[in-house]
Specification:
Elements: E1 5-7, H1 9-18, E2 27-32, H2 44-57, E3 67-69, E4 75-77, E5 95-100, H3 115-128, E6 136-138, H4 154-164, E7 168-172, E8 177-186, E9 189-191, H5 194-200, E10 203-209, E11 214-219
Helix pairs in contact: 1-3, 3-4
Bound molecules: zinc ion (ZN).
The site of zinc ion has 3 residues, from loops.
Length: 222
């Protein structure tokens, strides 16, 4: 019975490390769903909807993608990585297929909340299979499609994935507690995973109100 499972990034890494892969992987192929768009994401029901479409309309055995990334940075494990995907004709046997729930022909990847998480996931897959950033491909290289959307540029995407591996350690004095918040330097600006940093400092991220352009953080959280 096909199923999907939402995991944290740490759980994703652990899952990767525990995999016993029966197939060789030499490519990670990036997609967008086109439909549903980012604004249509409703959690599990959206992922199940994609799987049902792939099974009932396309006649496949499961969701065609191995991994789906949501606009709120949820990570979904879909078709088991051990099995060949159904996402890129001629490349399925030896690749991992990751899809953003978005339409990057129309929606702006720079304001997409799951972009960096998707790139971290791609970087983790590269690391697990000993691949370099050149193993990252866009679906449109292999098909007469725009996938994963013309607003995404492959060279830039690969460069950003490469930078994922240059993470900084955030250390809190005096206890020298380490906060794994995926910090990295980008042109002299330190970028971090805000939720991880806030929680590591004892705050709680209460809400993200996109329309008002606010992130609400509360003292004395977890
Ligand atoms: Zn595609």
């Amino acid at each position: 019975m096909p199923s999907e499972r939402q995991v944290s990034f740490a759980e994703f890494e652990q899952h990767l490390n525990n995999l016993r892969m029966p197939r060789m992987i030499d490519e990670v192929i990036v997609h967008h769903t086109e439909e549903p768009r980012a604004a249509q994401y409703r959690g599990l029901s959206t992922i199940q909807g994609v799987r049902r479409y792939h099974m009932q309309v396309r006649g496949w055995s499961d969701n065609g993608y191995h991994i789906m990334i949501a606009p709120n940075a949820d990570i979904w494990l879909c078709r088991p990585l051990e099995r060949a995907g159904g996402h890129c004709l001629g490349h399925n046997a030896h690749s991992v297929g990751l899809s953003y729930i978005a339409n990057f022909d129309a929606e702006d990847p720079r304001s997409y909340g799951g972009m960096v998480t998707g790139q971290r996931v791609v970087q983790a897959v590269l690391k697990r299979f000993g691949l370099g950033v050149k193993a990252v491909h866009f679906h449109r290289e292999f098909a007469d499609k725009t996938c994963p959307g013309m607003k995404l540029d492959l060279t830039t995407y690969r460069k950003e994935v490469e930078q994922m591996s240059q993470e900084l350690q955030i250390v809190v004095e005096p206890a020298r507690k380490m906060i794994p918040c995926h910090a990295r330097l980008e042109s002299d600006t330190t970028r971090v995973d805000l939720r991880a940093l806030a929680e590591g400092l004892g705050y709680e991220v209460v809400d993200r109100i996109r329309e008002e352009g606010k992130v609400v953080v509360r003292e004395g959280g977890a």
